[in-house]
């Protein structure tokens, strides 16, 4: 596992290696990009996640920065499903797609925007943090 000391150590936030580092996940656990399909009374939302292929009920919601489990509650009124996804890169974005047809496009700096300000770096003093 690459040893990062601060966010300014040329850290590539857009990698599973960074997710492994941030969440202290051992190298022995495989990781895969995934799409999360969360359905509630207000509709369905598709979000970016990382799943453990050997334990597909446990996943990380990238934007929420925490672990969740696949679940259905309230007689099906609320559910979370997670599906492994392939990632392809274009010039300015990543596209995540599943075998079932779900697709999510994110800007290339999506993960950096979420995690950069949660790790100490001397660069923080020069950034505008909203």
Salient structural properties:
single chain, 130 residues, mainly beta, six-stranded antiparallel β-sheet, three-stranded antiparallel β-sheet, 2 helices, 9 strands, globular
Fold and architecture overview:
- With 130 residues, the protein is mainly beta.
- The protein has one domain (16-118).
- It contains two helices and nine strands; from the N terminus they run αβββββββββα.
- It has helices at 16-22, 110-115; strands at 32-40, 43-52, 55-61, 66-69, 71-73, 78-84, 86-89, 93-97, 103-107.
- A hairpin with a 2-residue loop joins strand 1 (32-40) and strand 2.
- The radius of gyration is 16 Å and the shape is globular.
Radius of gyration: 16 Å
Shape: globular
Q: Helix and strand succession?
A: HEEEEEEEEEH
Query: What is the arithmetic mean of pLDDT?
Result: 87
Q: Give the number of domains.
A: 1
Instruction: State the major sheet.
Output: 6 strands, antiparallel
Helix content: 10-25%
Secondary structure: number of strands = 9
The low-pLDDT segments are: none
Compact overview of the structure:
The protein is mainly beta and 130 residues long.
């Amino acid at each position: 596992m690459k040893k990062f000391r601060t966010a300014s150590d040329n850290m590539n936030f857009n990698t599973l290696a960074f997710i492994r580092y941030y969440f202290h996940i051992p190298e022995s656990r495989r990781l895969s990009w995934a799409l999360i399909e969360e359905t509630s009374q207000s509709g369905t939302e598709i979000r970016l996640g990382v799943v453990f292929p050997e334990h597909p009920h446990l996943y990380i919601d990238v934007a929420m920065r925490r672990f969740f489990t696949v679940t259905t509650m309230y007689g099906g009124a609320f559910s979370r499903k997670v599906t492994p996804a392939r990632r392809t890169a274009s010039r300015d974005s990543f596209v995540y797609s599943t075998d079932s047809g779900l697709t999510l496009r994110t800007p290339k700096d999506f993960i950096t925007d979420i995690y950069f300000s949660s790790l100490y770096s001397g660069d923080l003093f020069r950034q505008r943090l909203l």
